Amino acid sequence: MPAEELVKADTTKSKVIDPLRPAKAAFYSAILPGMGQVYNKRYWKVPLVYGAIGTSLYFYLDSDKKYRIYRNELKARYSGYGDPDLAYLDDDRLINVQKLYRKNREYSALFIGLFYVLQIVEANIDAHLKQFNVSDDLSVAPDVYQTDIYSKPNVGLTLSYKF
């Protein structure tokens, strides 16, 4: 038997870690939402990013449109004119509806910003975790065992490390 067949393959080699990979993923996500997820090859997350930001943007635009309608109606009433379609609203209700849509618009803008920042952070963390070494040598598993004194089953965790 040749000596080459007796030597086992070296399995201790680790893959090369790129320390700039998380920064690149965050940078790409900051430039274009979802681009960091594409850089991390997590393509299924891109629709979630655009769904979250797009839904928030839709509610922002809708609330802004309605806020402007009621604000302009209130201004028109103070000028002596008014829309007959909105005549069923008195001035107090008109002010309250205007405040409601302004608040909804501000919340939607907050959610747009939060989802934008969240997708940047997610791309950065995902890039970090892709470089994390997960080995079969280390494992944590739930374990049920009996004590010697009371013979009752106990629940615990077993930490195993193979050298």
The figure for the number of domains is 1
Number of strands: 2
Q: What is the tally of helical segments?
A: 5
Query: Helix/strand/pairing class, anyone?
Result: mainly alpha
Please indicate the percent range of residues in DSSP E strands (runs of 2 or more): 5-15%
Instruction: Give, in order, the helices and strands.
Output: HHHHHEE
- Give the biggest sheet: 2 strands, antiparallel
Oligomer: single chain
Low-confidence stretches: none
Terminal-residue CA separation: 29 Å
Strand line-up across the major sheet = 1-2
Can you give the mean pLDDT?
85
Query: Which shape, going by the Cα principal axes?
Result: elongated
Give the % helix: 55-70%
Radius of gyration computed on alpha carbons: 30 Å
Pfam family, one: DUF5683
Protein name: DUF5683 domain-containing protein
Keywords: Membrane, Transmembrane, Transmembrane helix
Organism: Flavobacterium silvaticum
Keywords, please?
mainly alpha, 5 helices, about 160 residues, single chain, 2 strands, two-stranded antiparallel sheet, about 60% helix
Outline the secondary-structure elements:
Elements: H1 3-6, H2 21-31, H3 35-39, H4 46-79, H5 91-130, E1 138-146, E2 153-161
Antiparallel strand pairs: 1-2
